[in-house]
Amino acid sequence: MTVLRTDTATPGNGRFSGAGGGAVSVGQAFKRALVSQCHPTMLFAVLLPFLIALVGAFLLLYLFWTPLTDWLRAEVSHWDMVNQADEWMIAMGLFSLKIYLIPVIAAAILLPVSGILGLAIAAVFVMPLVLRHVGQREYASVTRRGKFSTAVSVWNAVWVSAAFAVGWVLTLPLWLVPPMAVILSIFWWAFAFSRMMRVDAIVEHASPEERKLILDRNNRGFWTIGLICSLLNLLPPAWIILPVFSALVYAHYGLDALKRLRQDNVIDV
């Protein structure tokens, strides 16, 4: 006979190993995601966020490239450090720094915006397809108890996208410090992957109480997955599959955490 445990585990009491497994659980999630990604349905799903991001990039470049570069040119003219470096390079017979700096900054602003758009599309529209695919095959015993899943998913995608865009633009000046360009890129994409995907991975199956518990206890694991995905994001070919592949990784990790949470709350007598 089985009975439900009434003293639901709380953070720190040691009863639930939700983050449990740590790197082992994260590694299992990536292995399972690789297998799931090779399924024809998931290969086809790759196209939607990639095409959205590609079209978004073309539209952003077409609509905003000229106004943005004109604005940047006016702003850069007030940066004494850039002006001095530009004058020195021209005096040395090299090239004008501004000619190359302004297009690079403009691309660094517009292209990540199209990327976060593709990730948001994957989170809101592709994740349900991912959950149906992996849920029916590997997590059939995990019943759906989510409430207002669509509203929660859309709101989460909106605020994460806005925070990413604002944070990315505000920290762009720090890119002038050589290591910060890579560090900030990794951090902001880890933030985007982690905050965007972890909610959508469990929003349909976990109740609000379960969702809060899982997010709190597996925070390190979710961030670890986001960090790995952001490192992969440094490789341009990975941009094609990362929105869907990251959704698969988070789905496996989140649903497995939910499954273990419910098992932990049931005792065999």
Automatic annotation (TrEMBL):
Highest taxon of source: Bacteria
Keyword Magnesium present in the record's keywords: the answer is: no
Transmembrane stretches, start-end: 41-65, 99-131, 152-170, 176-193, 221-251
Record flagged with keyword Membrane: yes
Show the InterPro entries listed in the entry.
CysZ/EI24 (IPR059112)
Query: Which keywords are on file for this protein?
Result: Membrane, Transmembrane, Transmembrane helix
Where does it reside? Membrane
**Topology relative to the membrane:** Multi-pass membrane protein
The name under which this protein is listed is EI24 domain-containing protein
- What is the species of this protein? Achromobacter spanius
